[in-house]
Amino acid sequence: MPVYSISHVENVRVCVVMVGLPARGKSLIAQKIVRYLSWLSIKSKCFNVGTYRRKLASPTGADADATFFSPQNKEGVKYREEAVQSAIKDMMGWFLDENGVVGILDATNTTRDRRDQVLRICRENYIEPLFLESWCDDGELIRQNILDVKTTSPDYIDKDSEFALSDFTKRIEYYKDIYQTLDASVDKNLSFIKLINVSSHVILNRIESYLESRIVYYVMNLHIKPRSIWLSRHGESEYNLTGQIGGDANLSERGWKYAKKLPELVLKSLGPENQHTNLTVWTSTLQRTQQTSSFLPYKKKLSWKALDELDAGDCDGMTYEEIEQQFPEDFKARDDNKYEYRYRGGESYRDIVIRLEPIIMELERQENILIITHQAVLRCIYAYFMNVPQEESPWMSIPLHTLIKLEPRAYSTLVSRIKADIPAVSTYKEKGTSQLGESDGGNSVRSRDLLKGDQTK
Amino acid sequence: MPVYSISHVENVRVCVVMVGLPARGKSLIAQKIVRYLSWLSIKSKCFNVGTYRRKLASPTGADADATFFSPQNKEGVKYREEAVQSAIKDMMGWFLDENGVVGILDATNTTRDRRDQVLRICRENYIEPLFLESWCDDGELIRQNILDVKTTSPDYIDKDSEFALSDFTKRIEYYKDIYQTLDASVDKNLSFIKLINVSSHVILNRIESYLESRIVYYVMNLHIKPRSIWLSRHGESEYNLTGQIGGDANLSERGWKYAKKLPELVLKSLGPENQHTNLTVWTSTLQRTQQTSSFLPYKKKLSWKALDELDAGDCDGMTYEEIEQQFPEDFKARDDNKYEYRYRGGESYRDIVIRLEPIIMELERQENILIITHQAVLRCIYAYFMNVPQEESPWMSIPLHTLIKLEPRAYSTLVSRIKADIPAVSTYKEKGTSQLGESDGGNSVRSRDLLKGDQTK
Question: Ranges of Basic and acidic residues compositional bias (chains A, B) (predicted)?
Answer without folding.
Answer: 446-457
